[in-house]
């Protein structure tokens, strides 16, 4: 009888003390709180939406003071520029990539005539057009300038980015000055350099 009753009684050596169960409960709560805090820190990184695309520049509005009416005369002279740009540059034996902002400037070097800009297009390393900045030709006043700015976080152009700028005029005119200014940095080092536009002339045997 006693042995049967003792077999039904709980083994006190197996059951934990209420104080031990309380301590384990407290540790479990602390662990859950720590896990929740970690999840709250990681969630913004895991679910953050990609940065919004940069708003497209309306050159006609941004540089209204630099522009004038298109000439009514025939555009007898024309030309173009290829402008190398470096949205990103590889450094440290190619292990580090540094991104740069890019400012393309088109200067009318003539003191007397308007410069008609027919096209400003931006291309990436693979030669794919990224943006076109003119819906229609614009006329730049004598000695005036228009610019296109590409922020540092817009890396669509890559290491071989470039611009094509097409221009025209009613007659003999000082050749425009077209260049790109890159500005950027890494850690405490800052860099700025200029890339000159190259006239798109046909090369071949004479």
From TrEMBL:
Name recorded for this polypeptide: DUF3124 domain-containing protein
Record region (Disordered): 1-22
This protein's UniProt keywords: Signal
Stretch forming the signal peptide: 1-48
Superkingdom of the source species: Bacteria
Keyword Signal: yes
């Amino acid at each position: 009888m006693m042995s049967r009753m003792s077999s039904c009684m709980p083994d006190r050596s197996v059951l934990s003390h209420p104080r031990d169960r309380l301590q384990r409960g407290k540790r479990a709560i602390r662990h859950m709180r720590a896990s929740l805090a970690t999840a709250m820190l990681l969630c913004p990184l895991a679910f953050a939406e990609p940065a919004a695309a940069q708003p497209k520049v309306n050159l006609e509005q941004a540089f209204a003071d630099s522009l004038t009416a298109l000439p009514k005369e025939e555009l007898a002279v024309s030309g173009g520029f290829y402008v190398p740009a470096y949205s990103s540059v590889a450094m440290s034996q190619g292990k580090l990539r540094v991104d740069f902002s890019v400012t393309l400037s088109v200067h009318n070097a003539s003191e007397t005539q308007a410069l008609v800009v027919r096209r400003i297009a931006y291309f990436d390393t693979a030669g794919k057009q990224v943006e076109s900045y003119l819906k229609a030709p614009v006329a730049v006043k004598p000695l005036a300038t228009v610019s296109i700015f590409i922020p540092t976080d817009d890396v669509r152009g890559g290491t071989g980015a470039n611009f094509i700028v097409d221009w025209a005029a009613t007659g003999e005119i000082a050749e425009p000055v077209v260049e790109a200014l890159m500005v950027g940095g890494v850690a405490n080092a800052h860099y700025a350099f200029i890339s000159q536009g190259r006239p798109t002339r046909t090369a071949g045997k004479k």
